[in-house]
Amino acid sequence: MFEPVRGGTRGGHAEFKWSDVAQDKDRENYLGHSINAPAGRWQKNKDIHWYQREAAQTEAERQEEIRRIKEAEADAIAAALGLPPGTRPPGMEGTGSGTGANAIAVAPKAGALDDLDPEKEERRRRKAQKKEEKRLKKEKKRAERRKERGDVSSDDEGTRWSRHDA
Questions:
Q1: How many CB atoms lie within 10 A of CB 125?
Q2: Do the domain assignments include residue 52?
Q3: How many CB atoms lie within 10 A of CB 58?
Q4: Which of 122, 139, 144, 166 has a CA-to-CA distance to 93 between 20 and 30 Å?
Q5: Domain range spanning residue 81?
């Protein structure tokens, strides 16, 4: 009924060595082979685990670097918006001075600074005025057509009457 367990070793966790994987012809079939079993000229005398090493940077140095980066980004945004260098766009005046989640500045929405330009504001106003005039003209034409067809009551409330209702 039960057969005895086959003798010999079939390789287990205790007998696994990454050095064996480095010389194996099928080393690419192992996950992590490029880090744990380096083979080739490019790995020679290189620190493959550089990302795991502790940085010799203090917390104060790190915060200072973050502050400088945020200021540089704010200056780049100001330049892209056409503001003079050294000034901050609205909402970014205190960029880099604080720490934490609220210290990260968000660029203003596109067009948020257009309100500062009086010429653009005047163009917008004229465009809106023309649009309103065009709408009124179109509405007037519609009302005239309705009167011609007899679809509108005499008080011209815009109520549609069927010709067959009378």
A1: 10
A2: no
A3: 9
A4: 122
A5: 59-107
How many separate domains does the chain show? Answer: 3
At position 26, the amino acid (one-letter code) is D
Q: What is the pLDDT of residues 27-75, one digit of tens each?
A: 888 888 777 888 777 777 777 777 777 777 788 888 999 999 998 998 8
Site of tokens 């067809």:
149
Residue 30 within a domain:
yes
- Say if residues 78 and 85 touch (Cβ distance below 8 Å): yes
Instruction: List C-alpha distances in Å: 105 to 6, 77, 91, 133.
Output: 67, 11, 7, 42
Using DSSP, state whether 29 is helix, strand or coil.
helix
Residue 97, both tokens: 């001075």
The pTM (predicted TM-score) of the whole model is 0.26
- Answer whether 53's CB lies under 8 Å from 46's CB: no
Contact indicator for 16, 10 with CB cutoff of 8 Å: no
102 and 134 part of one domain = no
**Residue pLDDT, tens place only, 76-133:** 888 888 887 676 656 656 554 444 444 445 555 555 555 567 888 889 999 999 999 9
Tell me if 6 is assigned to some domain: no
Token digits for 55? 């940085």
Q: Note whether 19 and 39 are same-domain residues.
A: yes
Query: Could you tell me if residue 1 is inside a domain?
Result: no
